[in-house]
Write a structure and sequence with these properties.
The structure is a single chain. The chain has a single domain (about 5-340), classed as Glycosidases (TIM Barrel, Alpha-Beta Barrel). The protein contains 14 helices and 10 strands. It has helices at about 5-10, 20, 25-30, 65-75, 120-130, 155-160, 175-180, 180-215, 235-240, 245-250, 270-280, 285-290, 305-315, 330-340; strands at about 15, 40-45, 80-85, 100, 110-115, 140, 220-225, 255-260, 295-300, 320-325. An 8-stranded parallel beta barrel has the order 1-2-3-6-7-8-9-10, surrounded by 7 helices. Strands 4-5 form a two-stranded antiparallel ribbon. β4 and β5 form a beta hairpin. α3 (about 25-30) packs parallel to α4 (about 65-75). The protein binds zinc ion. Zinc ion binds near residues 114, 154, 156 and 157.
Amino acid sequence: MPNFREFFLHKPLILLRPIEIETSAKEFISTYASYMESIGIVGKGPSGHALYPSRAAPVTEEHTQLFEDLVSLSSTLDIHTVASMDFYTDAWFAKDPKYHTIAPRGESMPHQICPNRNEFWEYGAELVGELGSYPIDEILLFGAGFIRDHFCFCDRCRNEFAPLINQEPSRLTYEYITESEENHAKWHDWRAAKVNEALKHLQEAARDVDVKVERETPLRLSVEVLLDPETGFSEGARGQYGYDYKSILEITGNILINLYPWSPIIPTPGSSEYDELVESLYFTNEFQRRGGMVTLFRWGVSSIEQLLELKALAKDAGIGRVSTTFTYPGDYSTRRESAIGNY
Ligand SMILES: [Zn+2]
């Protein structure tokens, strides 16, 4: 395990899995509270199992006590308290084939939900309500977009999108869509609208639970957006994953930039790749200027060197906060393959 004290001293928001805590919540908090500004704990990971006593999602019972104790202790000490929630990346829910997102040639993705499922948005809203009833300040919402530009070709998406470009649903192909710039742009807009609509549901649930628990400062929903050279940095990500940064600013006001999720190494300062990366983060200036909050996030930051590298980049890009996990998600290789492999 990395040296927690050293990490906390650099003030990142560290998102922890319960097994990484290794002691009771009480012992953990009393050891590190004086170094901590914030703390994050997984609420629902990509397995789809909740680590808090959820009524709607399946629960990993052995961790619920730790979750409840940790958020209650840290919020009492005025430490910024955060829980994470995987959204479309939900392997448990995706066991039901009717929710799978589908690749262009019909291959179904058993780890990810089609973002065009309003019944799943309701489920997500329910979970936001459950998490928000705990004394937390923020939810990090992971997996809030499409796998990539090649998704989704499920029956529902075909039936809804094909008529918009005068095609038969059964004859809709990725090639057909991308042959015409106009159709491709419509594809991007249509998908971004789905992503936004779901986010509105979740934001509404957050507001409702704020009223219910009389939270003083509104619960913050930080939406993960993936940014990788493999998927064209921030501009490419707009089309690939269905993010509309302007709308996200209006809906939740907070983004969590998952930096280089598919590429292991951040370029060295001074290199042209580094300049390109900083340039692709320029949009965050506008986002913050308009009152939004931006967090630079990375999976699997396990050394102080890596943490400092991330902090330096955040500083160069004018981004206020960094956040990390010690490990990659359990389904990482499947996700990477579906995002940048051959489909
Ligand atoms: Zn679909």
